[in-house]
Amino acid sequence: MRTLGVDLSANPVKTAAAVLEWTPGQARLAELRLGATDEDIVRLVGNCDYTGIDCPLGWPARLVPFLQGHLGNDAGAVLAHDGPEGRRVLAYRETDRFVAGLLRLVPMSVSADRLGHVAMRCAVIQAKIARTAGPRRRDGSDGLAEVYPAASLKAWGITARKYKGGTDAARLAREASLRSLRDQAGWLRLEGADAQLLASDDDLHDALIASLSARAAALGRTCPVPAGLEQAAAEEGWIHVPNTPLAGLI
Question: Against a cut of 0.85, is the pTM above it?
Fold first, then answer.
């Protein structure tokens, strides 16, 4: 099996991809790149069995009628979301609320934060994949799963705080995260140069975690969609949080 992890950015320059090759008893980092274009991602998706992408695959379903109401001057559709609670359901998806309740980790809002710019690129990439290989379900059931590296790390018990950015402190935090990862996953083969690259850049670091998370999703070892939320997951996307230790991936 080959899994692809993508740490998506609105800017291809900061978009990272990591491919893991899985064989009995081990996983090897087969490809690691920074600066992945849409075309790179579409090609890699086609060459891998399962993909985990760190970006929302959709928007809150209730956002659409709200925007349609605003565009059409339909006061009722807009006033249905008056007040903080009304706006909250426009800002967060069902999967965001699930992750927050599970891990006390609140994902960024795809509709009310800068993450929306990244999600627009992700929607275009999904359309390009659909054009060449057919559409993928947003709930992750057919090879393309939404993942959240911070949630995966927390689920695996790996402390990774303040590891973003180019400071010395951030690099030390990434090095500590990678040490914990390798302690738990002795089967993960990282060459010296790759380990240095992963420690040097948080986008590359998260692409690796996304690829490991893709493996968990491929094996069915992530938290399932709760009953009653299947349609929301299909429309809005669903974050695949591992529900097994790293040892369960091999």
Answer: yes
